Amino acid sequence: PETMNVTVCNTFGLNELAGHVPGLSAKSIVVITDSNVSPLLPGIISPGDPLLSAPTIVIPAGEQNKTIESAEYIWTEMLRLGMTRSSFVINVGGGMVTDIGGFAASTYRRGVKFAHVATTLLGAVDAAVGGKTGVNFGGLKNQIGVFAMPEHTCIPIAALKSLPHEELLSGYGEMLKTGYLFDKGLAGWIMEAAPQLDELVHNIPDAASRADDPSSLVSLIEECCRRKSLVVCRDPREAGMRKMLNFGHTCGHAFEAMTLARGNALPHGIAVAHGILVALILSHLRLALPSGEIYRYADFLKAVFPRIAVSCSDYPQLLKIMAGDKKNLNDGKVLFTLLQNIGKGVDYVSVEPHEIEAALDIYRDLTGQ
Q: How far apart are CA 332 and CA 348, in angstroms?
């Protein structure tokens, strides 16, 4: 397919999914969710829908629980429920649930079909679109996993309206990445909407009237999903152009892992938003990206996103995490996706550790540290 099967709906249910997954029946379905989303299911699933009574596997919430032990628990429950290869898994939650649920489904009995229901803005625009599944291992993100495409991805508006501000910002970080990678106009559109983010989410119109509101957040979500899925479907296993989607993630993952080790884990998309600034600085140093783009983004980052405390003493830890990135070769250098200009990316730029430290110095100056 040219794009992935993604729909935005008010609530979701068997009828919504069955329209996209031929032959789907209630008796074959098992739901995987986490302890945060489980109590919310009655408000996210359509009233009276058979999915409300489907067997449900609940795992502890939080990125720290995206582990092989949690996957083992899911597999144990799948066996206990008598799941077969013809069963069907519906992963309902944020990126943590879709990552680990997709991994458990795609490896159980060599593969059970699954769908995602993304209940966070981050999951909607990132984890649930792309077919990457996995768990964290050895203190590093997503080290064990497989590429496996969902049969369908549904984004229920009812779930987005329940999100706290920090979770909305996390999704926005990934949306910014998409805009900066593909389209200066899209990046500007996303940045202009950011100060009204909470208001935009809570004022999302119902499905019948969305077509009359092309400037709505739903339109932004749909455009970000479309842009990502075009890339993913052309390069599902990250052999070429899909590597561009790592923009902001090399340093972003390091910020995320550092805060996780400190015990105050930063949401993924917020870490990516900060990683984008480091990537823009390196883009200026290595590819002559106009410096005005750095200052513009730095002002936006400070105004919209929470600060990350970074000191020079953190550099060795950050560099070690970046050196362990899956994308790297074995030459001691770190590979980044950088920009020649907004909307024009260059993947796999090899960067020396001293260049990263110089970029982190500038990052700290620009963020007032």
A: 14
Identify the CA nearest to 304 among candidates 145, 163, 166.
166
Per-residue tokens: 118: 């993304």
Same domain, 138 and 277: no
216 and 116 in a common domain: no
> Is residue 1 in some structural domain?
no
pLDDT tens digits, residue range 126-163?
877 888 999 999 988 889 999 999 999 999 988 988 89
Residue 183, class by beta-carbon neighbours within 10 Å (0-12 exposed, 13-18 middle, 19+ buried)?
middle
Q: Residue written as tokens 């899209």?
A: 186
- Please check whether residue 97 is in contact with residue 38, taking contact to mean a CB–CB distance below 8 angstroms: no
Backbone angles phi, psi at 94, to 5 degrees: -85, -165
Question: pTM score, two decimals?
Answer: 0.88
Report the length, in residues, of the chain: 369
Side chain identity at residue 66, one-letter code: K
User: CA torsion sign, 116 to 120 to 125 to 130?
Assistant: negative
Show the tokens assigned to 263. Answer: 């015990």
Q: Is the pLDDT of residue 18 over 60?
A: yes
Q: What is the pLDDT of residues 164-180, one digit of tens each?
A: 999 999 999 999 999 99
How many helices (H) and strands (E) the chain has is answered by: 15, 10
Bridge-based pairing of strands 135-137 and 140-144 is antiparallel
The CATH number for 152's domain is: 3.40.50.1970
Do both 79 and 143 map to the same domain? yes
Tally of CB atoms within 10 A around 45: 24
Q: How far is CA 50 from CA 26, 29, 202, 306, in A?
A: 6, 10, 28, 41
CA distances from 357 to 256, 259, 278, 344 (A): 17, 18, 10, 24
Residue 291 lies in a domain: yes
β-pair partners for 154: 7, 117
| Same domain (yes/no): 282, 354 | yes
Average pLDDT in the chain: 91
Instruction: Report the CATH number at residue 299.
Output: 1.20.1090.10
Residues 6+ apart with CB under 8 A from 92: 31, 32, 33, 37, 41, 44, 117, 119
Tokens of 323: 């050196």
